[in-house]
Amino acid sequence: MNNTFEYLKHINWEHIAFALLLLFLGYFLAKKISHWVEKLIENRFSKHLAILSSRVIYYGLFLLFSISALHEMGFKLTLLLGTAGLFTVALSFASQTAASNLISGVFLLFERPFKVGDVISIKDIKGTVETIDWLSTKIKTSDNRLIRIPNEGLIKSEITNLSIYPQKRDEIILRIDAVHDVNNIKSLLYKICEECSHILPTPKPQILLSQMIDRGGVELKVLYWSKSDLATVRDEVLSAIKITFEREAITFVNERIYIPTLPSSITPLPL
Asked: Which residue ranges does the record assign to the Mechanosensitive ion channel transmembrane helices 2/3 domain (predicted)?
């Protein structure tokens, strides 16, 4: 007990209090300055660049205040720098994947194939970009799942940006029996497109006869443009097509597999 009291007497409490004050002040200033820089860059450039710059400034400023606090507490800065250097060398050898993701993040920063808030599709993943960090990108799907994709995977994959252009084109393929009048069906489909509130009048929708189908039938393509969610537009158009075709008694091509029978002169081989 006496040794403990003796040790506490030799502690410079003023330096420790000043070090804690530096940490608190550093955290507060780093938060405020990084937030101010983020808003400034976001207004002039992009949210992606703003977030990355904000984090660099925050960690940089807080690191400087932390080093100053450690110096006030009596730690040797040369020893800390030497240890940090050895740790950095060891970390660079042990984390080649992280370095690759970091470099890929820099390429994404300059190439900018997408930004925060864009809807993208990569492989089987489709969602809204939540954050773009140095090592990874986080995507929020429509069913509220957050998916983290390493930046190296993004650089090596084909990315479809679904938000970069406001107008998007969709198509619906219909296979209809040849007994029906194609021109009449085209008129009905044009009317459906005109009545759909989500389909743009310009560019004008197109109803094209794309090909003839075996066993009798024709294939029609309904092409239209929209600024709304394509899944919502497709649901509205298909619902209208179903109601109209049922009212007009328009039937589709039977897609059952046709198996030809053997001619009477040919005898099947025994099994």
From this structure: 56-96
Query: What is the Cα 169 distance to its own chain's centre?
Result: 20
Angle value at C-alpha 55, between 50 and 57, nearest 5 degrees: 95
Ordered by start, the domain boundaries in the chain are 11-106, 111-161, 168-248
CA distance 37 to 95: 30
Alpha-helical segments (H) within 173-261: 182-195, 230-248
> CA–CA separation, 39 vs 62, rounded Å?
19
- pLDDT tens figures, 204-238: 999 999 888 876 789 999 999 998 888 889 999 99
Phi first, then psi, for residue 251 (nearest 5°) are -110, 155
Report residue 256: phi and psi, to 5°.
-65, 145
CATH class given for the domain over 11-106: mainly alpha
- The residue whose two tokens read 């940490």 is 23
- Report yes or no: 182 and 169 within 8 Å, Cβ to Cβ: no
Other CB atoms closer than 10 Å to residue 169's CB: what's the count?
A: 14
- pTM comes to 0.53
Could you tell me the fold of the domain covering 168-248? Alpha-Beta Plaits (3.30.70)
Residue ranges in the chain modelled with pLDDT below 50: 7-8, 94, 256-271
Phi-psi region of 224 (alpha: psi -120 to 50; beta: other; left: phi over 0): beta
Domain 111-161 has CATH 2.102.10.10: no
User: What is the Cα–Cα distance from 100 to 103, expressed in whole angstroms?
Assistant: 5
**CA–CA distance from 175 to each of 124, 205, 217, 253 (Å)?**
28, 18, 7, 6
